[in-house]
Structure formats: structure tokens, C-alpha cells
Amino acid sequence: MPVTQTEATPLPRILLVEDETLVRLALSEELTALGFDVADAGSATEALQKLDRAAGVIQVAIIDFNLPDRKGDVLTNELRTILPELPVVIVSAYRHDMLRACFGQHEQVRFLGKPYRIEELVPLLHVLGIDPALEH
């Protein structure tokens, strides 16, 4: 019986945390089409629940900095108590130098300005060592 792509290589798992529903759904759909497995959340609380249910198999988190229940730097610290080396992409309209002050010089944190396109996000994921499982 032949082995399918999914059986041979599990899809890279992304935790997407975005409180704007339409943005979250569109990005989740685009990432899935590229070959990622996406667990999406609309708040920090929901993100922590998803991470708990995923039993540590999240490989990267994409986090909107301004969430309704906490800021992205607080959520990042909470996620990192569970997965200490979790790579993170922070999405925000704030300038990167302002955000850098919240995160220090951690090399596993990247920033992406809003608004952005998927063509800008995928190279950041690649820099963090996360590539889609499917070949296009």
C-alpha cells in the first residue's frame, strides 16, 4: 500500500492567534493550502487551550500583538513556559524597534508589520526552520 504525503511527513503545525475573525480564517486557509496544519485561536486564552490539547506538537506560533485578553509578549512568555524554544512571529502595526524592546534579542522571534501578505510570512517561517510539508 503506497504511503501518502501526510503519512510520510506530518504537516508542520502552526498556532495562529488572531482576534480578527476574517483575517484569522483567511490566513488559516492560505497556510493550510500551502501545506501547514493550522490550529487557530481568537484570544490568548484560547491559544493556551489549543496548545494544551496539541500536547506540545506546535512548531511555531504566529501571534497578533494586540489581543483582547493580553498582549503578544505576555502570551509568548506563557507559551514558552510550556515549549521553551517555540519560534514566534509577532504580527503588529507597531514599529519593530518598539516591539523588540518587549522581546529582547531572542533569535526565535520575528516581526511582521500589518497589513501583510502570505508571501511575506512564509519566508519568515523558513528563517525559523518551518517549511510546508507539501511541494508546490
Describe this structure in words.
This protein has a single domain, classed as Rossmann fold, CATH 3.40.50. The two termini are 24 Å apart. With 136 residues, it is α/β, with parallel strands linked by helices. 42% of the residues lie in helices and 18% in strands. The chain is globular. A five-stranded parallel β-sheet has the order 2-1-3-4-5, sandwiched between helices.
CATH architecture: 3-Layer(aba) Sandwich
Number of strands: 5
Q: Terminal Cα separation, in Å?
A: 24 Å
Query: pLDDT under 50 segments (min length 5)?
Result: 1-8
Which range best describes the helical content: under 10%, 10-25%, 25-40%, 40-55%, 55-70% or over 70%? 40-55%
Average of the residue pLDDT scores: 86
Characterize the main sheet. 5 strands, parallel
Instruction: Assign an overall shape.
Output: globular
Question: N-to-C SSE series?
Answer: HEHEHEHEHEH
Classify the secondary structure makeup into a structural class.
alpha/beta
Topology overview:
Blueprint: H1 5-8, E1 13-17, H2 21-34, E2 37-41, H3 44-53, E3 60-64, H4 72-82, E4 88-92, H5 96-103, E5 109-113, H6 118-127
Parallel strand pairs: 1-2, 1-3, 3-4, 4-5
What's this entry about, in short?
With 136 residues, the chain is an alpha/beta fold. It is built from 6 helices and 5 strands, in the order H-E-H-E-H-E-H-E-H-E-H. It has one domain: Rossmann fold (3-Layer(aba) Sandwich), CATH 3.40.50.
